[in-house]
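Cross-check.
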Amino acid sequence: MEYGLLGETLGHSFSPQIHQALAGYGYELLPTPPEKVEELFRQREFKGLNVTIPYKQTVIPLCDSIDPRASAIGAVNTVVNNGGHLTGYNTDIDGLIYLARRTGVDMKGKKVVVLGSGGTSRTAQSAAKELGASEIVVVSRRGENNYDSLARHANAQVLINTTPVGMYPNCGVSPVSLDAFPNLTGVLDVVFNPLHTALLMQAEKRGLPCSCGLPMLVAQAKRAAELFTGKDIPDSRIEEVLSELTAQLQNIVLIGMPGCGKTSIGAALAKLLRKRFIDLDGLTVQKAGKEIPEIFAGEGEAAFRDLESGVVREAGKNTGCVISTGGGVVLREENYAPLHQNGVIFHLTRSLDALPVDGRPVSQSTALSELWERRAPLYAAFADHTAGNDGTPEETLEKIVKELNGL
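Predicted model, tokenized:
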């Protein structure tokens, strides 16, 4: 074995994909029970290891030397075997510093509040110190600075979340309300699934520079790869790999008037991009055990919207999908966050006189012009992009793909 990731229980990891893209070497996942870690280090049959929970402290006494930054943090996430001599490093700090600079979060001379007191918190504290923070406060569940005493730190200017709060599958939860910090100039969240956590969505609403932890993940891997190989890798490779990962993880969400082609275009787009297709109306029908006109007739629109919102919450947790929504999904503001958390949202438009109404209760009961007038501002508020669907399906798909690729 050349290189790999050491941890106790390793589920799906992007590390092999990232390292292969960055440096082209073989990289394995090494789920290892605690009693086998010392043996692995004693045998030294590896060129380099990345180390994750719960072994970032465990491996310190098993190394022959520790880099000063890793020693100061008290955690090792990268081990290099140089002719039998094992040196421990911490590249998470490189990743977090890159994340802050990339996002435009300046910490020099500023008060930084770090949420959480674990290993990643210590990394964030060290990064903030290197970036010139004037004051660093750690908020945890216990101790003097806890979640009940946030008011004493209302003057914080940068917030870094190092807790798992809001991480998949418990999406939609934020560790704090940003209302407690009116002077913020930037927010970082080490969580990267979902891509937009509830904490980050608060920052987005305030127009603050903010980011999830995905750039940190790639940047720390780049630094580890440099230590493994002894070769410099340009930062441009971070951005290339990050772009590939984001495209892989991102959902593409289609909203728009009933009958505008969301389902047919969505299915074709999913096939084209090799993503899974999710039809929210279909899932709602499946959950209810009856067709949408039956739900409207028997239980009313409010009952349907309740069912729809439940389906939206669950579907939005997925990654790497194309999601077609019902025409009225925008009627409830609560549906935005689940769709946005992993998704880029396209408003699919079509001329009103081309919209079918058969089998669509709302379209049959309300004039399309009136329906459009009411919903158009809501579609605009939800959407990141707009794509017209009055031409051929191929033309519509081309518009969406070009927008996704920034062309």
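The two ends are 41 Å apart (CA to CA). The chain is about 40% helix and 15% strand. Passed to J.P. for a second look.
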